[in-house]
Structures are given as C-alpha cells and as structure tokens.
Amino acid sequence: MALSIEDIFRSCKFPLSSEGRRFIMNAAELAEEAHRDQKRKSGERYFEHSLSVAKILAEIGMESRTIAAGLLHDVPEDTTITLETIRKRFGNEVAQLVDGVTKLGKIRLHGSREEYYLENLRKMFLAMAEDIRVVIIKLADRLHNMRTLEYLPPEKQERIARETMEIYAPIANRLGIGEIKGELEDLSFKYLDPKNYAKTLEIVKDYMRESDSYLDRCVAAIRANIQKEGIRIAHIEGRSKRLYRLYQKLCRHDMDIKRVYDLVAVRIILPAVADCYGAFGAVHKYYRPMVGRIKDYISLPKPNNYQSLHTTVFGPEGRIIEIQIRTQKMHDEAELGIAAHWIYTEKERGLSWSKLFFRKNNSVIVPPKELSWVKQLQEWQKEIGQDNSKFLEGIKIDFFKNHIFAFTPNGDIIELPEEATPIDFAYSIHSEVGNKTVGAKIDGRIVPLDYHIRNGEVVEILTDKDRKRPNADWIRFVKTSIAKSHIQKQTKKDTGFSKIKQ
Ligand code: MN
Question: Of the residues 44, 78, 370, 450, which is catalytic?
Fold first, then answer.
C-alpha cells in the first residue's frame, strides 16, 4: 500500500507547525526526485522506504528536522544528489543527521563475524555520542528493513535478523523505545527461529480465541469499578504480550501458557500521579492481588526510568491478569523513551528534557546528567583505543547490563551497572575523586569500598586530598570500565610498590 506525505502528518504524535509541515514536504519532494528511478527488492518504488522511515519517526514523536532527515537518509549514498545540496536546502543540522546515518551504513563486510559485530557497535556508539537522533533514524530504517525482510535471500535474512537481535533491539531498549524494541525482537525471532516462532504463535492463537472477548469484558468491568470510586480514567486498554518475550517466558514455564501471568495486561492511563494511586487502591478493593507482585515503579523507577504501578490480581471471572497504571507522560516515556523527551520539551518550554526527567521524591528536580552512560563510554573508548576484546568486555558490562541510579548528597544522579561499588561511583564523578577515595557512606552509614550500591541509595565519597593514587586491589571488585582503566593507568605509574598488602 503506497504511503503519502499526508500519512506522515497524520502519524505525528504531536501536531506540527505549518512551517514544520512545509519543511518536511520539501524534503519529501527532493527525496522522491532523487530516488525516482530506483526500486526496492519488494518491487516498490524506493521512495516508499523513505516515507516509511519518516512515518516511524513521526509515530515516535520526533520533530520536523529529524523526520526530514529520515526522508533524505539514503539520498547521498544511493543517488546523484550530494550532501552539499541537502545542506544548502535544509541546513546544517539536517545535513549532519543524514551524514551520520550514511556513515553508520558504511561498515566493511570482510573479516570475522565478531569483527563485524564490534565495528558495527563501535560506530553506533560514536554516532550516539554525537547526536542520538542519528541512531534513532537508523533504528527506524532498520525497523522498515525488517518489516520487508521477506524479499531478501535467506542468507541475508539470517545475517540481518541476527544483527538486529544482537545490536539494534538492545540499543532501542537502552534508549527506552519499547515499541521499536518489541517489534524488532519479534521480527528477528521470526527469521532466526522460525519453528519456535510458529509454535508460540499457535499457542497464543489457541489461548486468545477465548481470551480476546475476555479482555473486552475485563476492561469494561475494571473501568466500571474504578469509576464507582470516583476516579476519572483518561484511557484504558487491554493488550497481550509480545511473541518473543512470551516465548522466553514459556521456556521458563515448560511451555505452559497458564503459568504466564502477564500474558494479558490491562493498562490504565490517569490524569495525575495521585489518581494513579487512587486507581491502584480501587483495583485492590475489587480484585485480590497476588503476593509479591505489587510493584511501585512510580516512587522507585526502574533503572531505565520506567515509571508505572504494576499489580497482578485475580481479575474479573477469577482469572489472573496484570494491571499497569500510569499517567500519560509516564506512558509516552515508556513507549517512546528518549524520543518522548523532545515532545515534553516542546510542551513545557523553558525546561530541558533531562531536567524534566529526573525528579526525586516528585518534588526536587535534579539537574541533568544527560545520557551520562554515552559520555562515559565515549571517554573510556578514547582510553582503550583499538583494543577490541576490552571494548567488548566493557560494552557487555556498561551497556547491556541492567543499570541502577544512585544519588550524590547534592541530589545529582549517577548511573551505574548493577553491583557497582563506591569506587565505581567515585570514578563516575571524576577521576580525581576516584584516585583520592578513602571511604564511603551509604545513606549516612559507613560501608566497605566493595559494597554493592542499590538503586536509589545516596552515596557519599570520603576523600583524602593527600592521597596520590588508587589502591591496585580495587581492580578485583570494581565493575565499570572507566574505574578499571583509571586504576590500571594510575597503578602502572607506580614503581612496583603498588601491590603491597595493607
Ligand atoms: Mn534506508
């Protein structure tokens, strides 16, 4: 089905200005002209791909310049129209976004799979550190390529699906764009493990045949009960779990679908945080909760900043369902992740998104540590140079591991991998703080330096200004690459005395 520019405007999460519309329209015109004689493997005109990428960007709430760059993303690479022309007509910002996406695409294919994987990852990180929107366009590009993967030969399908599962989906997840991550995983799953994909689909269909109408009855009953308590609902919907995630759960539960409690979930959106707790109480008044499955991610957000109230209850007709309760803003941030920040910047002028994002106790706005993990990775990359094995090891810990947030006594947020220690915390603040650390307090109480910091804890680092260098033994328990590389560097300067036991 052919798309039009109107489809893009209709997909926009938030309305565009007339200026923004005109900007996008001009970009579309140039892209259509540039790709005029090209076709996709599917037989569609190439421009259809440009429009699809732009539509995905519009859906996740990106602004007009990013959407324009999405339309133009394959122009310099595949047509006679140069980046210079794009710069002249659309300005430096769009040109840089397009150039960033083009560079990401230029990855040499020779060498081992491991080398290819590493180079790919490395490029993604470098791009991310420069302008995160480049990576978001690349994700939209990949999503549309995955949706049309059936037209490629099988060996290419395999490679692209694997790369999507190993690189693109985790990056979408890390950026908090749950919608894209979920679809990328499901599409990759289909090509990487067709047998189990079909099997999971079969199980769901069987179960859903009766579940579908149940979900409708369930939503109606819950809505009525919450309204009875005088709480106004902005939106309520039922949804079923994504296939790939469901398959993973099924594997842990002997493929028994009755043991997957969050197969169907009801999501309730409310106007304000207070309403969320009101609705939470109302739900528990009518439906008995399951022990150990009540989660308050509003007071204590998940490491990726996800906020919501979750509970699993014996719902209408006695069946087990999961209920998720949140505000519209929390919902947008959960679905669109980093992309949602632009939306809320536009909406709440004068505050940068990162300031909006980090609230402590719902009152104090914590100053931004904008994407500190990207900056840390960048810094640390400079230090390790081209050492691939170190890079991979670091990525696995710093990027793909679950993260926690800890606070400085001033309320600044420091993001760390799980099991990080006060030493990691100290080096995340500054290398000199790390080098001079002599002790640490958590929530006011002294802890050993190999203590594992937990989400939400306040960490105070005690330093001695006369201390020259870190303790070489710290290397045994620190978790972050940044701490490791500083400790190694500092203790190498020693003249052999660093290994003295205390
Ligand atoms: Mn493309």
Answer: 78
